[in-house]
Amino acid sequence: KDGMANTHEIREPDHRTIYRFMRTLFSAAQLSPECAIITLVYLERLLTYAEIDIVPQTWKRIILGAILLASKVWDDQAVWNVDYCQILRDITVEDMNELERRFLELLQFNINVPSSVYAKYYFDLRSLADQNDITFPTEPLNEDRAQRLEAMSRLCEDKLIDSNRNGFKKWSSLDSIPLTRQSAAILS
What positions belong to coiled-coil segments (predicted)? Predict the structure, then answer.
């Protein structure tokens, strides 16, 4: 597996390398396709809010941070930080916790994704796929899925606000916030 340790990589990754890295994470963590769209939203917010560039030395960590948050916000059975450490063997739980904390700070804790924003990204991706003759799943965003997206996003945001009121510091990792977990993620 293409891990995280090679931070001194100078060469700019091609789209196949980025795709393989993301596919590995999505496949091993069994993430939903919707999670990919939320990941894209978070990546663009990061680039806007933090005014940073994705460079060869940091692209994997930035993508991992976006996927980590997106899976916790969107998926009912989110993958825990320790589970990502089993996928990417050269990263520690402490490093994952720090990555999550920094990513939240850089996003200014704005993890809410309204259905209108999700729909915009969804249809922009469909258009991009059509322009490049790439097949795209044909299941459209319906009202139920849009409402679920907004509800999940608000629930996570509310839990962050509640945890702040209950003595958790704003910079606490999401791992230290008591979230209800329905079942353990199974990774292959």
Answer: none
66, 43 in Cβ contact below 8 A? yes
pLDDT, tens digit, 9 for 90 and up, residues 129-184: 888 887 766 666 677 877 777 777 777 667 666 665 665 444 444 444 443 333 33
Positive or negative torsion for Cα 174, 176, 180, 186: positive
Residues of the chain with pLDDT under 70: 1-9, 76-79, 81-83, 85-86, 136-141, 156-157, 159-188
CA dihedral 16, 19, 25, 26 (to 10 degrees): -140
- Do 108 and 153 reside in the same domain of the chain? no
Whether 24 and 87 have beta carbons less than 8 Å apart is answered as: yes
State how far the Cα of 112 lies from the Cα of 74, in Å rounded to an integer.
Answer: 10
Domain enclosing residue 150, as ranges:
139-168+181-187
Closest of 88, 75, 87, 13 to residue 39, by C-alpha: 75
152 and 68 within one domain: no
Question: pTM score, two decimals?
Answer: 0.66
